[in-house]
Write a structure and sequence with these properties.
The protein is an alpha/beta fold and 349 residues long. It has one domain (6-345): Alpha-Beta Barrel (TIM Barrel). It is 50% helix and 11% strand. The chain contains 15 helices and nine strands. The structure holds coproporphyrinogen III (CP3).
Length: 349
């Protein structure tokens, strides 16, 4: 039994006494306790692959920030690794794949991973986290959307354009579909296993959605996300966060998901006008708004809450919190959501 199930009730569209709030990338470098633990280790992967440590940093923001959910500490890139493509996390630079996908042989070499065998460390981290959380807040499981995972597997590292990955969609669409299909099959059993291990809700991150034109987005991304949503167990809410894909929100409205994540370029009022009230919306304060003064953070947060309205909203940023954000301003954001949304429900403002 969960002591605080606000997030799940909001996702299911039930009325809540206030708006739930958490932050993408809340477990990470904004917290001094994360940096301290991380500094004692060989690197990011040691943290991700050691369930007790991953559980510890998953719970840090629940203790330090009093958010309404924990998100399992891991990375979207564990999926390509489980399929046979190892990643490195280069200090201060980001992910790097020493080998990339170029040919049909490369795709043929990729396996559809078995969650227990190849991603058992994430599932164990979920089990340890659930025990330690003891029902305080729901635990969010996650995976990357197949398109975003393909983008890293083909490009090999972060990129402004992902032009190698996008080139494949034009020059060898059949190969792209073959890889997307393997990633999708891996992701489905992986997310199902996360739920079995204890995740209460799952989020699909399509971080590079916004670089595709709408027709490519439908063909190479949205349909695979739809397949993932369809495969999730009954009663487990799914959140689709496709950064930059404002053009696809009306498609998501017909998916088997409960929540649609909005980045900070999107206006929730326009989204509501387009899709109605069947889905919960999550987001979408500009992460840079947290660089302002305390008063500016409060004002921006209240404006955001007004734009979403009181129900069917999960407050968050429009993307992950930036590592050089002052945790005190994160607390101002969280407390403003809690206080303002409570008063708004009571009709006080
Ligand atoms: O708190 C949480 O949100 C949970 C943990 C989490 C991480 N990565 C930990 C992490 C989650 C949900 C992710 C998802 C992820 N990873 C995405 C999708 C979300 C998004 O931001 O669009 C993407 C694209 C990745 C790939 C990735 N991992 C990149 C590009 C980088 C380098 C950039 C950076 O922030 O440093 C990472 C590394 C990473 N993943 C860190 C953390 C805490 C920082 C590394 C460190 O601590 O050394």
């Amino acid at each position: 039994m969960l002591k605080n199930d606000l997030l799940l009730r909001a996702a299911r569209g039930e009325e809540t006494e206030r708006t739930p709030v958490w932050l993408m990338r809340q477990a990470g470098r904004i917290l001094p306790e994360y940096r301290a633990l991380r500094g004692r280790l060989s690197g990011f992967k040691e943290l991700v692959e050691t369930p007790e440590l991953a559980a510890e940093v998953t719970i840090q923001p629940v203790d330090a920030l009093d958010v309404d959910a924990a998100i399992i500490f891991s990375d979207i890139l564990v999926v390509p690794e489980a399929m046979g493509l190892t990643y490195e996390m280069v200090e201060a630079r980001g992910p790097l794949f020493p080998e990339t996908i170029k040919t049909a042989q490369d795709v043929a070499r990729m396996r559809v991973a078995d969650p227990e065998e190849h991603l058992g460390y994430v599932l164990e981290a979920i089990r340890v986290t659930k025990r330690a959380l003891n029902g305080r807040v729901p635990l969010i499981g996650f995976a990357g959307a197949p398109w975003t995972i393909l983008a890293y597997m083909v490009e090999g590292h972060g990129s402004k354009t992902f032009s190698k990955a996008r080139r494949m969609l034009y020059t060898n669409p059949a190969l792209a579909h073959e890889l997307l299909d393997k990633i999708t099959r891996t992701t489905i059993t992986y997310l199902q296993a996360q739920v079995e291990a204890g995740a209460n809700i799952v989020q699909v991150f399509d971080s590079w959605a916004g670089i595709l034109p709408p027709d490519h987005y439908r063909e190479f991304s949205a349909r695979y996300i739809a397949a993932i949503c369809d495969a999730m167990p009954e009663g487990v809410p799914v959140t689709v966060f496709a950064k930059g894909a404002w053009f696809a929100v009306s498609d998501f409205a017909h998916f088997n998901c409960r929540t649609i994540g909005l980045d900070w370029n999107e206006d929730p009022r326009l989204v509501r006008a387009a899709i109605g009230y069947d889905k919960t919306l999550q987001g979408n304060l500009d992460p840079c708004a947290l660089y302002g003064s305390r008063e500016q953070v409060q004002t921006a947060t209240i404006e955001m809450l007004r734009r979403f309205g009181p129900q069917r909203h999960i407050a968050n940023l429009g993307h992950g919190v930036y590592p050089d954000t002052d945790p005190d301003n994160v607390r101002v954001f969280i407390n403003t959501v809690k206080e303002f949304s409570t008063l708004a429900r009571q009709g006080a403002i």
